[in-house]
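Customer escalation, tier 2.

The customer says the design service returned an amino acid string that "doesn't look like it belongs to this structure." They asked us to rerun it and document both sides in this ticket. The original structure tokens are below, unchanged.
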């Protein structure tokens, strides 16, 4: 598993990952004034690289969710620095903590790693919320196959919308690269609003 930690550390140093964090931060700043619940949840906190998005956020309670034990030590240190809380559980277990959860939910390169049963359980508990997702373009999986064996599936925006039973507010692709001789946008950014 040390190999996977090293792989994620290297990914977190990439320039395109820095772009992903900037896009997520832009959306977060836009939606923070619009949400009644002053809570931000980072689903799949990883090694804590995403903490750059939330590190100087004021007047919000920030909670990360990370089920992978090998990652928890790293993310705990990062979250302690910014005064955020870490729950060492998976998304399905988090969904069981309340029958109604609201806030802003960040899925930064994590939604494709979560089993659909957990996403369904989560969907049933969230209300009056915004969901910000930064994802690899699903076309990448079709062109090169799984680039990470921990990926459950490469979900497109319509599948995510259906799974989360939410309205898509923004859906755009960015970061044009060449993959196997084909020009393709590397990333997709989504913002969804749950039905009230």
């Amino acid at each position: 598993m040390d190999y996977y930690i090293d792989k994620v550390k290297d990914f977190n140093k990439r320039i395109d990952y820095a772009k992903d964090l900037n896009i997520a931060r832009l959306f977060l700043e836009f939606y923070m004034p619009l949400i009644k619940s002053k809570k931000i949840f980072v689903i799949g906190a990883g090694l804590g690289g995403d903490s750059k998005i939330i590190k100087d956020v004021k007047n919000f309670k920030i909670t990360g969710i990370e089920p992978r034990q090998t990652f928890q030590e790293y993310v705990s240190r990062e979250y302690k620095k910014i005064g955020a809380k870490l729950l060492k559980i998976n998304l399905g277990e988090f969904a069981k903590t309340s029958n109604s959860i609201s806030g802003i939910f960040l899925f930064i390169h994590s939604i494709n790693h979560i089993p659909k049963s957990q996403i369904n359980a989560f969907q049933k508990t969230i209300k009056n919320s915004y969901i910000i997702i930064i994802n690899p373009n699903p076309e990448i999986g079709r062109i090169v196959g799984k680039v990470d064996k921990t990926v459950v599936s490469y979900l497109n925006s319509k599948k995510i919308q259906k799974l989360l039973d939410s309205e898509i507010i923004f859906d755009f692709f960015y970061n044009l690269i060449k993959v196997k001789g084909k020009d393709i946008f590397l990333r997709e950014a989504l913002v969804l609003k749950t039905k009230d």
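Tier 2 assessment: The sequence is consistent with the input. Residues 15-31 form the longest helix (17 residues). The chain has eight helices and seven strands. Sent an explanation to the customer and offered a walkthrough call.
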